[in-house]
Amino acid sequence: MTQLLVIRLSSVGDILLASPVAGRLRLLRPEAHITWLVDEGYQALLAHHPAVDRVVAYDYLGRHRGPAGLRVLCAELGAVEAVYDLQHKLRSSLVCAALRPAARRVLVKRRGLEVVRALLGHDTILRGPHQVERNLSLLDGVGEAPLPVAVADPASLPEARAWRRDFAGERPAVGLVVGARHATKRWPREHWSLLAARCLEEGLAVALLGGPEDADDIEALRAGLAGARLGAFHAAGLAGLMARLACLDALVCPDSGPAHLAAALGRPVVALFGPTSPERWAPRGPAVAVARLPLACSPCSNHGSGACPLGTHECMRALGVETVHAELAGLLAREGLAP
Ligand code: SF4
Fold this sequence. Notes:
The protein has 14 helices and ten strands. By secondary structure, it is an alpha/beta fold.
């Protein structure tokens, strides 16, 4: 059987925006066996993907460490006819070189003049094309791009349903992701507080979501919304997060991994964009709305940064609660869940 290997090692959003490559490969090569190589910890994203036959975890700090570990990894991957390297970093290049496939296609982030322009502060890839189209450019197929797909682990769903029942009962349940890794992508805490209060007034149940680093924000928000039933969550692991997102009726989230994950799970998502470009990074899914201000300085960054170059952070501070709420209400209305 023809063996194909896709490499996108990390991270959540990047892997999901690369997942349409597996969908198109399945259409182009229905007879092929498709393996995906991800970094250890990300397997849950693709474990139940309908177009991926096998997920191999790259344990580069453990059993796959060093030259001997690379040989172990190659033995686990086996003979491969073609590699699609969507990572294009040292580790993926070493795997490709060691496997010696008959064909190798590599996604190069910037070429020629694009590199020079980026060095001069005019990064042309900030605005697009969208990352899904960039990933699919490695393949020959044409036509509408497949959507990113994620499927929650059925074994994680009972616990997630119980979690939802506990804080939402029969009410529509909305998740608010109050954090983001890069400071410039964060929406101010006061805005989250107002949005959460408005949702609760309208009879929606609210889950405050974030990583461990957002625990203080979540607790402060919970304290300010005393008396309301809130489902705070920040530590269920990737499989647990997928299952919980799959149980929500909608998510409001900055441009970050959970937004891509919820969209790929088919959940309605309002994505908040400020320093980064939705033309390049908007989540793809059946029901995605983008909330963003049309500022001349935006986008200023490909992935977000620690501080606003202008010192104002207007892109997120001035993005109003009314605007975000209107997008959320629109998505819920389409689902027949209007508050
Ligand atoms: S420069 Fe503009 S887009 Fe960038 S962080 Fe500041 S306000 Fe936002």
